[in-house]
Amino acid sequence: MRALFQSQVQVDLPDAPKLVLVTDLDGTLLAGKAADRQRLYRWLDACRDEVLHIFATGRERRSVAELFDGQEHAPLRQPHLVISDVGCTVACGDSLELVPLVVDEIERLWEERAPVVAAMTAGEPGIKRQPVTAERRQAFYADLEAMDPALLQRLRDQGVDVVLSDGRYLDVLPPGVNKGTTLQRVLELLELSGTPVVVAGDTLNDLGLFQTGHAGIMVGNAEAPLLEWLPKLPNTYLAKGEGCSGILEGLSHFGFGELLGEAVS
Ligand SMILES: [Mg+2]
Questions:
Q1: 116 Cα–ligand 1 center, Å
Q2: Ligand 1 center to 7 CA (angstroms)
């Protein structure tokens, strides 16, 4: 399967990575002290052949591509792979072309539910469709005070998953699909089950990443509803630092200090 997966992406994936680093974007890889962001971005570039880097984001692909339009996030470079749409899309980190091996499975779960979700949410108070090209999911802005509190359960009763993040982003997803389950599928297809994996995030849509049981870094700016899960996530470390500062701290905590020291002074 690894060969087939590699044939579907336009970047060379490391043959035998020492680490798979999976990072959320907003509030995580794009946050933290400027000096720590620079350090982590330079390290990821220098260790490109040793660290398989995956973005795991609630953004859709176009919004991920926009990160690299200017120099705002330099020297951050494209990762090897992108898991976007809260786990509903897997794409090559460079071209952002879909990886059909994974995406087709998710598409099958979503296609019959999409019209049901569209009908149930049309005209509902307190929710507004986000102006994004959400793929294999539906994304809304939610006003918790204005929306019908029973709506989420009505949606779940239709066999879809519902995730509310940052108190305002509502995602309706195919059943059983989140950042974590998609990550697991990717690792399985890449035959990387023996490789250490570290995941990092800051809001509830990252919960699936932490629930995989991989070493987890909850960054210091994590939202309160995610922090409530911490006691149930025994392999997750709560960093003091925000964003990249927390990722660096967590990598040292999990024993990657030596790897971090390589190529970055
Ligand atoms: Mg985030």
A1: 28
A2: 30
- What pLDDT, on the 0 to 100 scale, is given for residue 152? 94
**Interval between CA 163 and ligand 1 midpoint (Å):** 13
**Ligand 1 centre and the CA of 30: distance in Å?**
9
Tens of pLDDT, residues 56-82: 999 999 999 999 998 999 999 999 999
d(CA 24, ligand 1 centre) in Å: 6
| pLDDT confidence of residue 265 | 41
Pair of tokens at residue 51: 């660290």
- Domains of the chain (ranges; CATH) run 2-106+177-261 (3.40.50.1000), 109-173 (3.90.1070.10)
- Residue 262's pLDDT band, with cuts at 50, 70 and 90, is low
Ligand 1: centre distance to CA 42 (Å) = 21
How many Cα atoms are found within 13 Å in the side-chain-facing hemisphere of 70?
A: 1
Distance 258 CA to ligand 1 centre (A): 27
Give the pLDDT confidence of 118-167 residue by residue, as tens digits. Answer: 999 999 999 999 988 888 999 999 999 999 989 999 999 999 999 888 88
Taking the centre of ligand 1 as the mean of its atom positions, its distance from the CA of residue 219, in whole angstroms, is: 10
